[in-house]
Amino acid sequence: MSSEHLTTEHHSVFPSIMNRHLHTAPSTALRWPLAGATGRTACCLAVVALLAACSGGDAPPSAGKDAPASTAASGAAARDQSVITVKPEMADRFKAEPVELRAVSSLQEVAGRIEANEQKVTRIGAAVTGRVTDILVDVGANVSRGQPLAQVSSPELTQAQLAFLRANANREMAERAEDRAQQLIRADVIGNAELLRRRTELSIANAELRSATDQLQMLGISADAVSRLRQQGTLAPTAAVSSPLAGTVIERQVSQGQVAQPGDPLFTVADLSRVWVVGSLPEQTARSVQVGQSVEVQVPALAMKQWSGRIIFVGDTVNPETRTVTIRTEVENAGRALKPQMLATLRLAGAPVQLPTVPVAAVVREKDRDHVYVRTAENTYRFTPVELGPADPQGQRPVIKGVSAGTPVVVDGAFHLHNERKRAELE
Q: Can you give the pTM of this predicted structure?
């Protein structure tokens, strides 16, 4: 290296160094200008080495002291806060046992509602166009088969009764003509052909009378009223709207004075001795439910009282709006405690399968998730998130994800251990 390559900074230090060398070795300093190129190069290298030694000695001592502090900080940041090590004197407070495999029946809860048995529900209307003159029952009334619910007055009713009277008169005339023909044939006055003709007329008259009678009964005229009409010729002013089955009136859509048309539903009567419980099952789990499968029904409005039944219907189609499949069960309702449109919960139990389970006491709930404490070493535990199913009657919860069978988890003292871990986080 030549002297021309020295930096400006190095040249600024040269005077002080040169002065020290001149005072200590004046003879050598005086010979520098006379030395050759090799001497000048060696001198420059010596000066550069001296500068490096001086700058290394002037380094602040604090740089070496900061290294252990930064290492400790990174170690603290890397410490897993889900792991806790308890003191040996506290070890007896926590009991860990391995996760066991148990036979678990999958339990599925489905929201549902109470509905009347549609096979025992009838919607009743007037058979003729007419004005409702009287309402005989109201909602909640228990009615018997054939009991009148309302009275309707109609011109069609009058025409039907007149047609009945004509048919009855024709039948009586045909009957007398047939009797007269039998007398004449015994007297050998008429032939057999005439007798057959009059018998045919009697048969037609009987058929017309039966048809007129059926028409009156369809319009709501009772059998007693028809009998009075035949014997006395008295026309009934109104026709009854009657219930075709015994049950309870659950709906009324008619008022007095209203004009009723055929087909208009005026009353709804249902037999509530047995009711349906209808639920909507997600399409993903619909294949796990079969007709005949046992089911328990709980009704929140009745203090979670339970009814037992069996699935009687599983829908064959999916509701495109809710993506659910309709299921239905039928239960006894002798005391009439179950009322249509009550909310209910259907609890469906599947076939038992072997699953790892943990006791309810081992589960710690934090941030809307279930956790357990897994023992990883002596007096060391890890706070582990798990996915669990609902608890069974024995207080065991099946493990869906998180830990496997044989993993030691804290089954006694988990809550206290959780408090210790939270306290350690604050320190």
A: 0.55
Q: What is the pLDDT of residue 287?
A: 82
Tokens of 336: 């009439």
Question: Exposure of 189 by Cβ count < 10 A (0-12 exposed, 13-18 middle, 19+ buried)?
Answer: exposed
Task: State the angle between helix axes of 192-219 and 223-232 in degrees (0 to 180), rounded to the nearest 10.
Answer: 130
First to last CA, the chain: 61
Q: How many residues in the chain?
A: 427
**Using CA of residue 226, residue 227, residue 233, residue 236, what is the dihedral sign?**
negative
pLDDT for res 12? 43
What is the C-alpha to C-alpha distance for residues 206 and 203, in angstroms, rounded to an integer? Answer: 5
Angle (deg, nearest 10), helices 223-232 and 155-186:
60
CA dihedral sign of residues 240, 241, 245, 246: negative
Amino acid letter, residue 421: R
228 close to 234: Cβ distance less than 8 angstroms: yes
Which residues are registered as beta bridge partners of 408?
98
Averages of pLDDT over runs of 10 residues in the chain (427 residues) are: 41 42 39 41 45 44 43 48 90 93 83 93 90 92 92 88 91 88 81 85 91 86 82 84 91 91 90 94 85 91 89 93 93 90 89 87 94 94 92 87 94 93 85
Q: What is d(CA 385, CA 274) in angstroms, rounded to the nearest whole number?
A: 46
pLDDT of residue 248: 93
CA 340 to chain centre: 19
Q: DSSP class of residue 402?
A: S
**Beta partners for residue 84, in sequence order:** 381
Could you tell me how far CA 205 lies from the centroid of its own chain? 64
Three-class DSSP category at 420: helix
**Three-class SS state of 147:** coil
Q: How many CA atoms lie within 13 A of 189 on its CB side?
A: 7
